[in-house]
Structures are given as C-alpha cells and as structure tokens.
Amino acid sequence: MDSIVVQGGQALKGSIPIAGAKNACLTLMPATLLSEEPLTLTNAPRLSDIRTMTLLLQSLGAEVSSLAEGGVLAMSSHDINNHTADYDIVRKMRASILVLGPMLARDGHAIVSLPGGCAIGARPVDLHLKALEALGAELDLREGYVHAKATGGRLKGGRYAFPIVSVGATENALLAAVLAKGTSVLENVAREPEIMDLAQCLRAMGAHIEGEGTDTLTIEGVDRLHGATHPVVTDRIELGTYMLAPLIAGGEVTLQGGRRGLLEAFCERIEAAGAEVTEGPEGLTVRRANGPMRAVDVETAPFPGFPTDLQAQMMAMLCTAEGTSVLDEKIFENRFMHAPELTRMGAKIDVHGGTATVTGVDRLRGAPVMATDLRASVSLILAGLAAEGETKVSRVYHLDRGYEHVVRKLSGVGAKIERVKDDV
Ligand code: UD1
User: Fold this and answer.
1) Which residue among 98, 108, 131, 189 is least enclosed by CB atoms within 10 Å?
2) Is 25 a catalytic residue?
3) Considering only CA atoms, which residue is closest to atom 8 of ligand 1?
4) Is the CB of residue 52 less than 8 Å from the CB of residue 89?
5) Closest CA to 24 of 174, 191, 196
6) C-alpha–C-alpha distance, residues 387 and 389, integer Å
7) What mean pLDDT value characterizes the chain?
8) Distance from the CA of 168 to the center of ligand 1, in angstroms?
9) Alpha-carbon distance 47 to 95, whole Å?
10) Structure confidence by residue, pLDDT tens digits, 37-55
11) Half-sphere exposure of 396 (CA within 13 A, CB side)
C-alpha cells in the first residue's frame, strides 16, 4: 500500500488543471446501456472508481475502451448478454446501483446486488427502488440482490415525489424514465451540476427532458435512444479542494477550467473566511485577501448549498483560521472521521453528533495519519501543506478513487509532496 508524504510550509504558486467530474462520469457511463449505438465521453477522469464502473459495464456485455488522450472513453452496448450486476463489483462502489434503472428500461429486467454499508453512514437505496416502482418496476429483494422486472415488459411513465433530495436516486429514476412509455414527473429532485450534465447527455442521445436545474423533472419517454459524444462537466469537488490549498498554505493558485457557478455557496463561505476569488478566462484564481483566514460557520446541504463532499477539506482549512467555527453536517451521519486524525496534528475539534466545533490554532504539526474515506484523505493532505514538519497519510487507495495525479498537481504549484511505497 502507498502513502503520501507532505513537508509543510511551502507557499503555493501556479496553476492546477481541474479534471472532469468523477460523480458525473459515474452516472454518464451507465447511460451507454440505454442505446445500441456508441456513447463516447470526453474529459473523463483517470480514477479507480471509473475503472470499477468500466469493469461492471463490461461484465454486462458492454464494450468500454481504456481511457485515451483527452479523457476519451468510448462505450458501446450493442450486445448486453448479462443482466446481473454481481456483488463482487457492486460492493466496491455504491454508484454501481446506477446500472439498475437503465438495464430495466432497456430490456425490462435486471438483477443488481445491494451495495451494502459504507464508511460515511448507512446510505440506503430505498429511494432508488421506490422511484423505479413508480415507473412500473416490480421488485423482489432476495439474498442481497434486487430482482427487478418491468410490468408488461416495459417501464411506463409515472409520478414520484422524493421525500428527501437524493442525487443517486434522481439519476437512477432519470436514466429509467427516458425509455419508459409515456410521461414521467419526478418531484423534489436533486439539482447538482452532475444531474444537469446527465440530462444534457441524455438529450444529445435523443431523450425528451425538461426542468433540469429545478426541483421537478418532466420526461417524455421515447422508444429508442441513439449514440452521442458528450464532454464530462468539470469536477467541482476537485476544484473546491484545490481552492482551499492556497488558503491553507499561503500563495496564489489558478484552477484551470473552474467556474464560480459550480460552487457559489462554497465561494461565498471561503470569502467570508477571508479568501479572494477571481473569475477569469482561464478559471478561478484564489488567495488570501489580506491577513490570516478567519472562522466561519458551515452547514452542508444539497446543491446549490455547501457540498458535503467539501466539508472535510473546509474543516482542514478552519483548523488554523482565527476564532471558532461550527460545521453542521446535514447529509450524512458519521462523516467526521477526519476529525480525530486532524486532532493528531494538533487541531482543536469537538464533535457532537452531526456538529463539529473547530477552534483555530496557530499551527498544525505533521504526524502519521490515516485516510478513512475519499474526502477525508485529501483533507489530511491539505492540512499537511501548512503543518510544521512531515505528514504521512497512509491508506491512500481511497484517494485514487477520486483525485487523479494529486502529487503531480500539488507539486506543480510548489508543494513538497511525494508518494512512497510502504514497507511490508
Ligand atoms: C452522491 C455523490 C456523493 C455525495 C452525495 C451528496 C456520487 C457517485 N456520489 O452520493 O459523493 O456525497 O451525492 O451530495 O454521485 N438516501 C436515502 N435513501 C436512498 C438514497 C439516499 O435515505 O435511497 C439518503 C442518504 O443516506 C443521504 C442522503 O439521502 O443521507 C443523500 O444521499 P444521496 O444524495 O443519494 O447521495 P449519493 O447519490 O449516494
């Protein structure tokens, strides 16, 4: 297993290119199952989660190319000869459940393993299943698998109001409704940029969708979809992560391809904490406005609110901001596993339920720390950028799921960071 070693104390200067969004790519890839014609994505990121989705689609009979220059991922689902998504792949990645809606919509039947628990809370898939039932799916849960059939062989348009906003359940329902017979209305849907991206890709394939970006989606099902080429939207979580780097370490960094509209609530919070964010033709440029960063309160919420996927990184920044900040995590229970690790580096953090209170200290000190999930691991690297001495982050396989070339990108702006093989 590899670790990442950071020597703190270098101010950062330069540009970081931002990749295509992991979470968009993971919902765009299953869209290939909806058509017999090829779907090609460009700007796809090079990440282990994308490889897992590739293996899953290949196990169903889809052809998926390896990632070419420019992030080109060519897919074709002419021959889908297996309708079972096996536990061995699904357990590695929750987003695997996103093949359920398209398989059911295309061929009227599918068997998909339930994803199981995950380090950041229980994360059930009940809303995915309820939305598909509203579109005419008959579901049977047996031996850890969802056995799904479309009544009469084809899904039909239906109405479903989500009781809480769910990104994945909105995506699954949308992926299914585009081929259902008749009109579907989905209410209280997620409005994340990744959902807008999915709707745009499906529309390029011939789907009839209205309302993306609002809380209601209206979908007029079509009999077939055709091929398309679609660029994956910029990864707003990678963008926000690297925007925090110069605020923690000092200096000035331009995030190439970054747009404020992807992260308005986040920009507003870091500006309140003392950041200066400038939008230019190349992207977003970030530095401290004047003097040290200050405490701010943060509450996570579905888009357009502050993203839960940036909460850990924001906490890393607030550990050395002046004053006391309160972070309320409203999306996932048990998403403060980075807090004890940051405490090992000298941070002052009290966690009670879904609330963390962070009192800024003058300086963190490097320490050996352990990554517990994707966003937690990158928060420890960010903390290490300004810590005194060496921070060694182990279990970085979490990081490989969501950040491509993290060492290259941060060393490119002057950070002292390297990846090392652990002794076994
Ligand atoms: C997606 C993102 C993840 C991000 C999250 C919230 C992907 C691959 N992952 O995850 O990075 O942190 O959105 O922005 O895009 N819930 C239920 N029942 C369900 C589904 C969800 O109760 O059937 C709950 C969850 O436990 C959670 C909340 O709804 O408390 C929101 O989860 P959801 O938006 O579905 O997250 P994901 O799609 O899993």
Assistant:
1) 108
2) no
3) 23
4) yes
5) 196
6) 6
7) 95
8) 6
9) 14
10) 999 999 999 999 999 999 9
11) 27
Tell me the Ramachandran region of residue 155: left when phi exceeds 0, alpha when psi lies from -120 to 50, beta otherwise.
beta
- For residue 167, how far is its CA from the centre of ligand 1 (angstroms)? 6
What are the pLDDT digits (tens) for 74-114? 999 999 999 999 999 999 999 999 999 999 999 999 999 99
Structure tokens at 76: 């074709």
Residue whose C-alpha is closest to residue 236's, from 179, 315, 305, 141? 305
Q: Which amino acids bring their CB within 6 angstroms of ligand 1?
A: 23, 26, 94-95, 121, 123-128, 164, 166-169, 308-309, 331-332
Nearest one of 169, 168, 135 to 149, comparing CA atoms: 135
DSSP structural state of residue 260: G
Cβ(159)–Cβ(184) below 8 Å:
yes
Enter the pTM of the model: 0.97
- Output b/e per residue, 369-383; b: 16+ Cβ within 10 A: bbbbbbbbbbbbbbb
**Closest Cα to residue 42, out of 201, 194, 175, 155?**
201
**Amino acid identity at 247:** L
Can the peptide bond before residue 304 be classed as cis, meaning omega within 30 degrees of 0?
yes
Annotated active-site residue in 118, 201, 267, 319: 118
Distance CA 175, CA 110 (A): 14
